[in-house]
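Q: What would this chain look like folded?
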Amino acid sequence: MGMMSGIVLYAVIWFMSFFIIIPIRIKTQGDLGEVVPGTHAGAPEVHHLKKKAVITTVVAMVLWGIIGGTILSGKLSVRDIDWFDRMSSGIADTSQ
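A: My prediction, written as structure tokens:
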């Protein structure tokens, strides 16, 4: 895995983790009973976005280390998860 591949892998893990963490412990205007006219009751009032970004960064680092280590170790490859045998080593004879 090259440097650019590692950066892309980290970015994908970070954003996936962030989208999972965003709705946790969110307080909406409807929950607090203070809906601003012209907005939806489900609009966030207290979101703690900076704290969630820090948590996401830590979680993504741990997951990136595990996934990157697994990829670099070679213990798991694409052929290991080829359940339908689409990457067989032989070339199929299509001349018949």
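Residues 18 and 56 are 6 Å apart (CA to CA).
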